[in-house]
Give the backbone structure.
Amino acid sequence: MLTFIGRRVLYMIPTLFAISVVAFAIIQAPPGDYLSTLVAKLQAEGEQVSRDELQALEARYGLDEPFHGQYWKWISGIMFRADFGQSFQWNRPVTDLIAEALPLTIVLSVTTLLVTWLIAFPIGLYSAVRQYSVADYVATTVGFLGLAIPNFMIALGLMYFMHSAFGMSVTGLFSPEYRDAPWNLGKLLDLAGHLWVPVLILGTAGTAGLIRVLRANLLDELKKPYVVAARARGMGERRLVVKYPVRVAMNPFISTVGWVLPALISGEVIVASILSLPTTGPLLLNALRSQDMYLAGSIILIVSVLTVIGTLLSDVLLAWLDPRVRLGYR
Amino acid sequence: MPPPNERDPLLEISGLRTHFSTREGTVKAVDGASLTVPRATTVCVVGESGCGKSVTARSVLGLIDHPGKIVAGEIRWHRTDREPLDLAALSPTGPELRSIRGREIAMVFQEPMASLSPMYTVGDQLMEAIRLHKEVTKDEARSMALDLLRRVGIPRPEQRFGAYSFQLSGGMCQRIMIAIALACDPALLIADEPTTALDVTTQARIIDLLRDIQAETGMSMLFITHDLGVVAEIADEVVVMYLGTVVERGGVDEIFHDAKHPYTKALLGSIPRMGAGTRQRLTTIRGNVPHPSDRPSGCPFHPRCGDAVPGLCDVEEPPEVVFGPARSARCVLHAMERSVR
């Protein structure tokens, strides 16, 4: 087991290196840089930027250096000083910006994951054990609706409904009075009061998907000879189902742990923008639009690192739970 | 212990009908099968694939998958000092049948590897079988389990105890399954083609093991197989099934040397023989087993029977002709012979 984990950790190093290069290269790929965006903006406001000024700015931001020079400047800062560089757009250290958005993003994604599991698990289990029952059909219908309706539609619908029915605004994660307040119990409760809306919206598709996966897996497992064999030795149905087929059907729950974060950040930018959530998704979107390369690159890098760690975690969990994985079956 | 009475029945199946209602119509997998398993006896059920052998065996323990159901017949289970119990009348999910499964009647299956869950060690599943029916502590169950593993001929049982099914060979897994079946000293062991998935040498070892255990414990065995070689090895009595009905019953010697039913004769005729000459073509039974939803009228075997009498076999259900207490055949030829005599 320790060798397994050790080997997996070693594999992470080249993976992360490759990710950092690719992330940086993709951000650099579109023509222009932050300065061209800035100049365009200044010009639109009627200001002229002289060539000298431009060169001074380029030198200041290090934008006159070649690609590998810029990459080295960025990555060495991260590796040796935990310094992710300066955000051009916000004129603040990237580290500060990420430190604000990332914890909330993680709280949101972990909560979404747990809620998804809590809802999907019993429904999927029931759907499989009582296949073609009324409740199974209801779960299936709701599940497909959840999969089919885009999340931002649900977000807009919910916002409209809450506003017209209760006069409530469901955007953001904090009420205005707590937004810039330091952390205390009131702020925590306020967060809990706001969190359920994005969790519900972001969780629908995942819940629906997991219900389908669990149901399909469990239906396969319920027909396996070891289920009949356990029944033949006099085991009660309820205990049997939980001990044998459910154990196997659990695997997709665990193996998807690692994907939660990237899905939340890349896939749910629209929802986060609509609900004006202070998470990394909208931050990344803005950074990309204004070619704020250190900010964008750092967000992508950090999310990738978390994804790789998440995948490692789910692999370790899977190996711990499933002897076939642990003992290298086939 | 009094010597076991030869005709002292342990399990009596009479007129069993197990049907599967599908969208395409009712599949009569077992349609009026009757057989008796006496105490301390091995009864082999033989027949081609799809003749209802397995469904008959599974009906005994109520292990029929949806949409199958026992629609008629009795499965009388004779317990010592107690009234016979009709297993067919019990709910397949109820506690009565559950208390019989594994304790009084145990079962061994066709695919040993798949019959063990890969998520738990074989020792865990063996201890579970013990603890389901016996009030013992974990440690007691563990030492009982190790004894069982030793008894079914597993070398180094302490090591094998912690192994997973996918780390063991098919033969080992089947030994584990037999150990699980023996956990509570059942009066009847149902073996549903326990050697079909194994290679020939392993088959022989498993057959020997089952025969030894049967002799040692005096339990009865209901052995399902399509392999007449296995039947010759292990059976005391033989039940030949065709399309969900029993066509012939008899002692193992009577079946092999004095088969009455044309189907039994045809089955025996299709065994390859040593010294029959390499150029000799193997005799086969004409045609295929019809699908149970498409059952021929009259005698189900008549379209494939060389001795079929037109106008009789395709019209009339053949009567059961009884030759002795455990000897009968379901064929008009013998009925006619009888009436002539």
Notes: The CA atoms of residues 266 and 299 of chain A lie 11 Å apart. Residues 185-222 of chain A form the longest helix (38 residues). The first strand of chain A starts at residue 86 and ends at 87.
